[in-house]
UniProtKB/TrEMBL annotation:
Keyword Hydrolase part of the UniProt annotation: no
UniProt cross-references to InterPro entries, sorted A to Z: AB_hydrolase_fold, NDRG
Chain spans, region Disordered: 313-356
Biological process per Gene Ontology, one example term: Wnt signaling pathway
Keyword entries, A-Z: Cytoplasm, Developmental protein, Differentiation, Neurogenesis, Wnt signaling pathway
Signal peptide as annotated in the record: none
Gene that this sequence comes from: LOC104967559
SUPFAM superfamilies linked: alpha/beta-Hydrolases
Source species, domain of life: Eukaryota
Annotated GO CC locations: cytoplasm
Location of this chain's protein in the cell: Cytoplasm
The name this protein goes by in its record: Protein NDRG2
Pfam family, one: Ndr
Similarity remark: Belongs to the NDRG family.
Length: 356
């Protein structure tokens, strides 16, 4: 199914509705941008701990390059219980949903809005939730864009470290360390101050701590890479998946580990050079570029809508640098796609490295 580019190039302003959707595990706040169409996927987002849909995704979805996608796809932002701006403090007797339970909230959202299938876009905790949802409901998912995903449970050492952190750090400090790498925290004071302000002024501290507690007590995704001639029925994501991480992110090792556990024929790892903990905010144009290639690979968006991207040439090379080749209009699966630092500041080239 290919969606042709609209002839009118005027700025498209989607209709926006906000609703609290009831689920078995409580109400979740949802923002629907655009009107869902029968038998047509919706882009569904889920934010990270310490963020809500605005602080996590607004820079990405308000970027001018995102207009092509928004014209074709309604966007449904899902916020975890109590994480939206101005949310009231959850009562102390409330049992916050586990990560597994939060993943089962998504089917209720899909049913509420009458959606058929989704393309999931998640960050951190939200990426984990969407991956879990896709594992349990593969028929509802066309594709996944997972930023900063950690497929593992918190280990013993991590658990002890978290306890010490809880004793010695404030909640905002803990969240900043989760969202950003050491380089950003030390050098980008304005960025850190901005997100610290958002965390402390727009979100309820108790509610955020409950979400963080659920994330820190997650179970491993228990995914396994299928091996030809071996365990071809291994539990893994069935849909095409784009993994994204900045090279200065605290999640780099976790994302690379996740890539090693997924089907290489359906998975692409985009490791962004000169990029921090939130690629969608740090380098939104590059993330959007990758999303357009990814969505086109799913069979949506015509080549006409890729005109701007088609003018850029992408260079691919193996890890040992023994060979390279030029390629246009393709984000190849099962490989690592790294934007150079130069590309962040101007249209030069990108490098894609093979992964094992």
């Amino acid at each position: 199914m290919v969606l042709e580019e609209m002839e009118c190039d005027s700025v498209y302003e989607p209709h926006i509705t906000e609703e609290h959707v009831e689920s078995y595990y409580g109400k979740v706040h949802c923002i629907m941008m655009g009107t869902p169409k029968t038998n047509h996927p919706v882009i569904l987002t889920f934010h990270d701990v310490g963020l809500n849909y605005k602080s996590c995704f607004e820079t990405l979805f308000k970027h001018e390059d995102m207009r092509e996608i928004i014209r074709h796809f309604p966007i449904c932002h899902v916020e975890a219980p109590g994480q939206q701006e101005g949310a009231k403090t959850l009562h102390t007797g409330h049992t916050y949903p586990t990560m597994d339970q939060l993943s089962e909230v998504i089917p209720a959202v899909i049913k509420h809005f009458g959606l058929s299938r989704v393309i999931g876009v998640g960050v951190g905790a939200g990426a984990y939730i969407l991956a879990k949802f896709a594992l349990n409901h593969p028929d509802m998912v066309d594709g996944l864009v997972l930023i900063n995903i950690n497929p593992s449970a918190e280990g013993l050492i991590d658990s002890v470290t978290s306890k010490i952190t809880e004793w010695t750090h404030t909640l905002p400090d803990t969240l900043i360390s989760h969202l950003f790498g050491k380089v950003e925290i030390l050098n980008n004071h304005d960025l850190i101050a901005t997100y610290r302000h958002l965390i402390t002024t727009t979100m309820d501290e108790y509610n955020v701590s409950e979400f963080l507690h659920s994330y820190n007590h997650r179970h491993p995704l228990e995914v396994e890479r299928p091996i030809p001639g071996g365990n071809i029925n291994a539990r893994t994501l069935k849909c095409s998946t784009l993994l994204v991480v900045g090279d200065n992110s605290p999640a780099v090792e976790a994302v690379v580990d996740c890539n090693s556990k997924l089907d290489p024929t359906k998975t692409t790892l985009l490791k962004m050079a000169d990029c921090g903990g939130l690629p969608q905010a740090d380098q939104p144009a590059k993330v959007i570029e990758a999303m357009k290639y990814f969505i086109q690979g799913l069979g949506y968006l015509s080549s006409a809508s890729m005109t701007r991207l088609g003018s850029r040439t992408t260079s691919f090379s193996s890890i040992d640098g023994s060979r390279s080749r030029a390629h246009t209009n393709e984000l190849q699966r099962g490989r690592t796609y790294s934007h150079s630092a130069e590309d962040k500041h101007g249209p030069t080239h990108s490098t894609m490295e093979h992964t094992s």
